[in-house]
Here is the input.
Amino acid sequence: MPSQQITLDFPSASNYGRSQFMIGACNAIAADWIDRWPDWPGVIRALIIHGEPTCGKTHLATIWKDASQATDINSISDGISDGIDALDPDKSYVLDELACGANWPDEMLFHLLTRFTGSNGSLLILAKEPPAAMPWRLADVASRLAAINTAHITAPDDDMLEHLMRKLSDDRGMALDGEMISYIVKRMERSFICANAIIDALDETSITEKKKVNMGMARKVLADMQPTLF
Here is the structure.
């Protein structure tokens, strides 16, 4: 397991270094795989990290790119076989937001995966859902993706959410106190998306009302976002 550092991925933070990534139960496996590179087993030296938006995939990819000198591939929809053949199979690439559809046609993706089979290069694949379970038309694409090392960044626990809320609020200059953070975390949906949405709403309310964030604002934001709980 990687060393236990108090770090985490925050979309508003400008520093995406290794020391800014927090290890928690939800992301320890993914971080460990990143730290293990280039010791990634398999006929394709690759890793898939999947999880909800804002969960830390981009941060981990940035850390890995610094180590591997990888290049981003955001789409192969405009590519042709010659374009994929131009990729160096001895170098590293990030396939960002892999999903079935026009940006990642089956035939082109199969050609890309074949090019890196048995090569010295590496692929880091980021996705919202497990790529092997996506409805690919070509069974060979699904089977090759299923053979790749995979790490799922799961929903954050309360400890992670408290660190996240504190960091996000500090980034906005709101400096929420421990009592308010604890109040919010106990009542919010356990997700990175919800944490970011709550901080955005508190920040907007504070600016609109020209007041510091207070408990009344927190209650209203939570009630507006999760009315069935209030």
Summary: The mean pLDDT is 88.
